[in-house]
Design goal:
12 strands; alpha+beta; 5-stranded mixed β-sheet
C-alpha cells in the first residue's frame, strides 16, 4: 500500500470497485429513522482494504469519507448529491497522511491552494486521518492558519467550548468571497452530523452562481457547501431543502444550533483540551 505524506487526487470511475466495498457496509448506528455504518466500521474496512495492497492508501481513505457523505449522515441533501457526483460535480481531495504530531501544514497549504484553483473543482476537502484527539486538531488548525491562506474569523472560548470559524478565500471569485470551512471527524464531542470516519475540512471553492435557490444564504460574500450548482427542477429544490431540515433535526436528535450550523467549523469542549487552547 502506497503511503504518501501529502497527495492531491480526484475521485474517478476507476474507484467504482472501491466505492462498492464501502457501500456494502451494513448500517448499525440509528438516528431516528436513519441508520449508518459506525466510524469503527469504516476504519476497520479501510484497514482490511489496505491489507489487499490493491489501491493507494489515499484513495481508500477518500472512498471511506465520501461514502459517509453520500449516505447523508451530514444531514445536507445538497452535500449528499455532490458526494454522489450528481451532474458530474467535482469534489476533489487533498490527503495529508502524516503521523500525528508531525507538522507539514506549509506543504498542505500549497496543495490546497493549487487544488482549489484546478479547472472544474466545485468542492475541495482536506483529509487528515492522523488527527484523533481534540489537542491534535486544535494544533493543526493553528499551524494551518499560520502557514497558509486559511484564517479564523472567530476564535474564542464560549459556553465551555473553543469555537472556531475557519475561512478560506475563494480563489476564482470576482470579488472578495470567503468560504465557510466545515469540519468533520471521528469525535464523540462533534454533532452527529459532523461525526465522520476521519478528520476533514470541506471548502467550497467557487462563488455563488447568478441563480441561487431562494431559501439558501444569499450573501454573495460567503460560499459554503450548499451552494453547489445542482441541476434540477424548482420543485426538487424545495423538496430537498425541506428534506435537509427534517434529516438534520433527526440525525442531530435536537434542534440545530449555532455550533452545528455550517458557519461553525469546530466547537471543541474545553474539557477535551489540555494545551494552550484549554483556556
Amino acid at each position: 500500500m502506497v503511503r504518501e505524506p501529502s497527495t492531491a487526487l480526484r475521485p474517478s470511475h476507476d474507484d467504482n470497485e472501491l466505492t462498492q466495498a464501502f457501500r456494502a457496509l451494513r448500517p448499525t448506528v440509528a438516528y431516528g429513522a436513519r441508520s449508518f455504518p459506525s466510524v469503527a466500521q469504516y476504519r476497520r474496512a479501510v484497514a482490511e482494504l489496505e491489507e489487499t495492497d490493491r489501491w493507494d492508501r489515499p484513495r481508500v481513505l477518500v472512498a471511506a469519507q465520501r461514502d459517509w457523505h453520500a449516505r447523508g449522515q451530514n444531514g445536507c441533501v445538497f452535500a449528499r448529491l455532490t458526494a454522489l457526483a450528481a451532474g458530474g460535480l467535482r469534489w476533489d481531495y487533498v490527503v495529508a497522511d502524516f503521523e500525528a504530531g508531525v507538522s507539514t501544514t506549509e506543504v498542505v497549504g500549497d496543495l490546497v491552494r493549487d487544488s482549489a484553483t484546478a479547472d472544474g473543482v466545485e468542492v475541495l476537502s482536506l483529509l487528515v486521518p492522523a488527527l484523533t484527539t481534540a489537542d491534535e486538531v486544535a494544533k493543526f488548525i493553528r499551524e494551518l492558519v499560520e502557514s497558509s491562506a486559511f484564517w479564523l474569523e472567530r476564535d474564542e472560548a464560549i459556553d465551555d467550548l473553543m469555537v472556531a470559524h475557519l475561512r478560506y478565500p475563494v480563489p476564482a471569485a470576482s470579488t472578495d468571497v470567503q468560504a465557510w470551512v466545515m469540519g468533520f471527524g471521528p469525535f464523540e464531542w462533534m454533532p452527529n452530523t459532523r461525526r465522520s470516519p476521519y478528520f476533514e475540512l470541506v471548502i467550497r471553492v467557487q462563488e455563488k452562481r447568478s441563480w441561487l435557490f431562494h431559501r439558501l444564504n444569499q450573501d454573495r460574500d460567503i460560499a459554503h457547501l450548499a451552494d453547489v450548482p445542482l441541476n434540477m427542477p424548482q420543485h426538487h429544490w424545495e423538496h430537498r431543502w425541506q428534506s435537509t431540515r427534517r434529516r438534520t433535526r433527526m440525525i442531530l436528535q435536537k434542534e440545530p444550533d449555532s455550533y452545528s450550523a455550517a458557519k461553525c467549523t469546530l466547537a471543541i469542549p474545553l474539557a477535551e483540551l489540555h494545551g494552550p487552547d484549554r483556556t
